[in-house]
Queue: 2 jobs
Job 1
Amino acid sequence: MPASPNSLLAGSGDPFDALGDPNRRAIVELLGSAAAAGADGRSVQELADALPISRPAVSRHLRLLKRAGLVVEEPRGTRRIYRLHDEGIEAVRAYLERVWGEAAARFRLVAEHRPSNRR
Amino acid sequence: MIDPIRLSFEVACPVERAFEVWTADIDRWWPADHTVSGSDDLLVVLEPRSGGRIYERTPGGIEHDWGEVTVWEPPARFGYLWHLRRDREDATEVEIRFVSASAATTRVEIEHRNWERLGAEGETWRDRNRGGWASLLPHYVAATTGPR
C-alpha cells in the first residue's frame, strides 16, 4: 500500500488550497453545522465517524486546515476539540464577497448598457 | 429512493489491465486514507471470486473487513457489498464496469447504490462518499499508467 500523498502532508497554508479537497470541505461543513447546532466543536473521532476516510486521515486533514487558518484546536480534558476559526473563515468570506461584488457591479454595468429590444 | 453515485472516466490501458489493476493490484494503489486503521504499511486484499472478502490487514495481523465480492465477471464487470467504516448491516452496493473505448483505452463506469439501507442518514453518507470517490480515483488512474 502506498504512503499518503504528499499533497496531504505539505500544505501551502492557503485556505483555498485547503478547501480544494472534498474531504476537507466536508470537515469544514461538519464543523460549521456543529457550530450552528450550538456544539462547541468536534473531536477527531466524531469527525471520522461521519466520513468515509480513516481517523489518521482526518487528523492529517485537520492539521492542514489548521495551518490554513480555517480550524483551531483546543484541549478539552483528555480530548482535543476542533472548531472553525472565525477569523480564517471571515477572511475567505470577505475575499469571496469582494470578488463577487466586483463581478456583480460589472454585470450591472453590462446589463444597463445593453440596447433595448423594445421598439 | 436515493440517487446512486454514478461515475465514468477513461484510463489509458486495455480492459483486461484496467480490471487487473483494480482487483489483483489493489494493494499497490489503494491509499491509506481510505482504510480503517490508516496505517501506511498495511495490506489491502480483494479475494478474486464471488463471495470473496475485501479487507485490510495491519502489520500486527489485525484484519478489518470492508466488504464482500458479489459479482465476479473478469474483465468486464465486478460488484461488491461495501461497509468500510460502517457496520456490516449498513453495506451499500458498488458495481464497476470496464468497457473498451479503443484498443488502448477503457471506460470505467462506477455505480454506488442502495443508500436506502442507511435510512435517514443515507443521503448525507452518499454525499460524503462523493468526496471519498473523488480522493480515491486519482490513485487508481495513476496506477493504470504506472509501472507494473
Note: Chain B is about 25% helix and 35% strand.
Job 2
Amino acid sequence: MQKGYLLFVLNAHLPFVRHPAYERFVEESWLNEAVSETYLPLLRVFNRLDSDNIPYCITMAISPTLASMLTDELLQERCVKYLENRIELGIKEVERTSFDPVFNKLAKMYLENYRTAYKEYVELYRCNILKGFRELEKKGRIVIMTTAATHSFLPFYTDYPNALEAQVQTAVISHSRIFGKEPTGFWLPELGYAPGVEKTLKANNIKYFFSSVHSFLFASEKPEYGVYAPASCCGGIAAFGRDLSTSRALWSYDEGYPGNHAYREFYRDISFDMPEDYLGPILYEEGIRVNSGFKYYANTGKPKEEKKPYLPEEASVKVSEHADNFIYNLKKQIKKISSQIDRPPVIVCPCDAQVFGHWWYEGPQFLEKVIRNIYKDEMDIIPVSADSYLEQYPDNQKLTLSFSSWGNNGYAGVWLNGSNDWIYRHIHSLIEKMGELVKRFPDEKGLKERALNQAAREVLLSQASDWPFIMKTGIAEPYAVKRVKEHIHNFLVIYDNLCRNTVDTEWLTNIEKKNNLFPDIDYRIFGLQE
Amino acid sequence: MTKDRLQSLPLSSLKEIARKKGISDYQNLHREKLIDIVIEALEEDRNERIILNNMAIRGEEKKYDIFRDEEIESQDTREYEIPSSYNETKIHLMMIDPLLAYAYWEMSDKDRASYNETAKPGKLFLRVHEISCIVCEENDLPDFFDIPVRIDDNSWYINLPSNNSKYYIDLIQFMYGEEKILTTSNIISSPSRTIENIDEDLLLLTGIYDFKDDSFDDKIPQRIISMLSDKYLNEKDMKEE
C-alpha cells in the first residue's frame, strides 16, 4: 500500500472587533460564537486525542487580530457574559420544550454544551484559550503559524513593500510575544499570492506558506509533483499547494459532507422564531436579533417547507460513514498520485477553522473520527507538519508561482469589485502618507511616538481583507464600511495633527484604548524603502 | 428571515424590505402575499450568492452571518469623515485576474483647474500600454489603446487584451493639439492563463482528476479554469461506497 502525507491546515481568523464604549456590540458576537462553537470544541477534540495517546498533527494559523482579541481582558469578560446568557436561555429552553421530547433533548444538549464551554473557558483556561493551543504545540500535537497582521489580501500591496513588511513583521512580532516562539509558517490571507510576497516572508524568517492550485497550474514551469510536493520559491522558501478534492469534501455544502440531511442546519435558529420578550438578553438594542446558538432542525426542507428536527444520533452515524469515506477517498487519491510521482504525496487540506463546529456542527466530531481512523489504519496516511515534511524532503522543484487566491475563479475579484473598490485609493494613500511620516519623524519619543504608533495601527486595521469581503457578500456591510472609514479618519486626524505639530492627547488616548492591538508596534516598520 | 419573523413585522417594514428587494407592485399586495413574495426574494438572493461564490467564499461568509438576512445598521452611529480625494495627481493600477484590471486616479485641484481652462470636454483619456518587458529599449514601440474618460470619472475597470503580459497606464490630457501626460501608473503583470504541455498527468497532479466524461483534446485554458472553480471533482468517487 502506498503511503502519503496529510497536512491538515486550519485558519483561525476574525477581524479585530472591540467596542469598549458600548456595553454590548453586535459584531463582537463573531468572536463569542467562534470561541464557543469552534475553538473550545476543537481544543476538546485535540486534548481527548492527546489523552488517548493518538498521534496526530494539525497545523493552525491563528491570526494576530484573533490572538489579540482572545487575550484582551474586556473581550474575555464579554465572552463570559455571552456564555452566561446562553446558559440562562438554555434553562428557559429546557423548560419551554418540556412537552416535546425531541426538542427538549436538543435544548438539554445545547445547555450542556454551553455549561461545558463556560467551565472550560473560565476554570480550565482562565478566559485565555490560547493557553490550550500553546500547550498542545509544546506537546508537538499542533503547529501554530501566523498570517498577515490584520489578514490583508497581500497581492494588493506588492507595489508597497513597506506595507508588506509592516503586515508580516508586525505579525511575526505579535506571534512571538503571544506564543513564545517565532513562527516558521505563514498563512497567506485568502491564499492570496502574487510574485514578490515571498521575498518579504523570507526576510522575516518564514520557511513555508500555502498557496492555491492556480499558483501551481500556471507556474513558470510544469510542476513535476503538481500540488503534491511543495515548490521552492525565490530564496528557497517552500510553497505548499492546496488539494481541491479533500477541500471540496469538507467545504462544499452541495456536494461535500456538511450539507447532508442528517446534519444540523446552520441558519434556523430560535432567535428568529421566538418573540422578543422571550429572548431577553439575546437581543441587542432596538430588537436586533443575532444567532442564539439554539438550532433544532436538520438540513432539510426549503424555507417554506417543513423542516425535520435534528437527531444527534443519526448525525453521529453519518459522521462515522463520512469519516470512513474521507479516508477511503484519500487512500484512492494517494494510490493514483503515487503512480505518477517518485515520492509519497503530501495532501494539503486547508480549511477555515470555523467550518468545524460553527457552520458544520458535527465538524469537530468528524475531525476526531478521521484522526482516530487514520491511527487505526496502520499508518498508510501519515499526518505531517510542513516543518517535518521539509526536514525529510528539503530539495524541491524551483518554481515561480502565479498570482492567485482561493476566491471565486481563483483570483482577486472578491476583494476588488464594484462594492468595495472605493477603499483602495484611501488605503494606498494612507500607506504612502505613513511612509512620509516615518521620513519626517524618524526618531520621535513620547507623545508623538505614541501618535505615530497609533497611526501605524490604523493603517494596518484599514487593510483587513474582511472589510471588502463583507462588503461583497452584503452581510454586515454597514459595519464594514464604517470600520474602513473609521481607520482612514483616525489616521488622517493623526497625520493632520503631526503636520500642525500638535497632538490631541485625550483623543489619542481614547483611540489607543479602543484599537489597542499590537502594543509593541514600532511605526518605523513603514519606513522600508524598495 | 423566517416566515414567523416576517409575520412579526409591521406592514410598513415589510413594504420597505419589498422595496429594497426590488419587488414590483408591493404597495398593492396583501400582507400574507407580501410575506410570501419577500421570502421568495430572500431565497433568490441567497441562491444567487451560492451560485456566484465558490465553496471557500460561501464557507467563509458564515463567520459573519449572525443576522439571517436582517439588514442591520452599525450600532456605531458616529460619522467618520473621509476626503473624496487627496489633492494629488496620480493613477494606480490593480490586477484582478489575468484579463481584468482596475485603475483609480485623481487630479489635483491645480491640474483640474488647468484642465477646465484649457481642454475641451472629452479630451481626457487613459492610455493603456502593454509591454513585454519592464525595461523597454529605446526603439521599442509598446502596444497601447486609449479609453476616453470624463473629468468626473475617477476609476475604470479595464479588460486586458492578453494575459502573461505587463501593463501600465497614462492619464493624458489633450490640449493645444498636444498630448500631456498628467500621471503614469505602476506596472502590473497579468498572470499566465496558458498551460504549457498540459496533459492528464498535470490535471491529476493539480487535483483536477476524474474527468471521465470530458475530453481535454482541445486544451482550452478557459475550460480548465471553469472546472477549477466549479466542477473539478466528479462526485462519483464519494458516492461509490
Note: The two ends of chain A are 51 Å apart (CA to CA).
